[in-house]
Amino acid sequence: MRDSAAATTERHSTGSADVHRRERRLLLLSALMTVSLSCLGVGLGLLARSKALCLDGFYGLVDTIITGLSIAALRLIERGEDQRFQFGYWHLEPMLATANAAALTSVCLYAVADGLAGLLNPAPTANFGLSAIYAGASTLVGLAMQFYMRGSNRALRSQLLRVDAQSWLVGALLTLGLFVSFGLSWLVSSFGRPGWLAYIDPLVLIAAGLALLPTPLSTLRRSGVEFLGIAPADLDQQVRAIVAEVARRHDFARANTHVSRAGRLQFVEIVLVAASGERTVSFSLMDQIRAEIAEELASASPRFWLTVDFTADVRWL
Fold it and tell me: Would you give the DSSP letter of residue 229?
């Protein structure tokens, strides 16, 4: 069994209420902008009988719902750990990122399926001039928001803001495709080929769905790894390298590590095994060793939950 005098645990996590408040403000701004554009897009899509334009609006509405949930999650994360969630609420970040990516993936797949159905039963798009104006303006707004959110997140390193910035980029690319679609519609009608108009909207719908699909799939893969608790390879290698050097420096016979990541918080558990149970190590030295490890970890990420165990019994590995 573990010797209580020779084994001790330190848990260290960092966070800032100011950072969380700034995140909430950014997400609230994003939600307000998104819901405004989405309602306008759905309304114009129904008016112009454009399923591609309706897709753009629906895509934004789904994203707005996730953004609202993200704001609520940040309030819980800011509270820190409590009696029920003793490691805090950091797990909500990858959970929401996974839900967001899954929802947007479903929207893209539905767009492709609906576009194929539109090719089989074509219906002409009306008022493409007004739709082109909306698509062009929405593209500019989406690109501006993407740059703003990405720039604001450089210091915050928030998974929620990163996903939100990606959503703005995806939406901007979608509306850019719509702008091209309605521009082509104008050219086709100008050259006296109105029969082709019915096929442009579903073709662009399919192209947009396929072009946008890789982005939420990439987010789904990355956030899914965290949601399932799979050890991140980069963190695992970093911790192993740090612990190997510390074990060599302080003459420990063996060492073992376990790591996981939940949003911005990294969980690191380390076990250091002494060569002999007769070895005496002071608490001040154990604190020094922990401080060395924590300093190395903090150089890469300021947010971590660190546990360091000391023992002479390999059964505790």
Answer: T
Let me know whether 132 and 258 are in one domain: no
**249 & 195 share domain:** no
60-70 pLDDT, tens digit per residue, is: 787 788 778 87
275-283: long-range pairs with CB below 8 Å, 24+:
275/251, 275/312, 276/312, 277/3, 277/312, 277/313, 279/312, 281/6, 281/310, 283/8
Mark which of 177, 205, 227 sits at the end of a domain: 227
Tens of pLDDT, residues 116-157 = 888 888 766 556 777 788 888 999 999 999 999 999 888 777
Tell me the pLDDT tens digit for each residue of 238-257: 899 989 988 888 888 889 99
pTM assigned to the model: 0.67
For residue 307, report the phi and psi dihedrals to the nearest 5 degrees. -125, 125
Got the DSSP string for 163-194?
Answer: HHHHHHHHHHHHHHHHHHHHHHHHHHHHTT-G
Give the helix/strand (H/E) hosting 105: helix 92-120
Last residue of a domain, one of 181, 207, 227: 227
Q: What letter does residue 230 receive in the DSSP assignment?
A: P
**Domain with 274 in it:** 233-316
- Cα pseudo-dihedral 263, 265, 266, 268, rounded to 10: -140
Domain count, the chain: 2
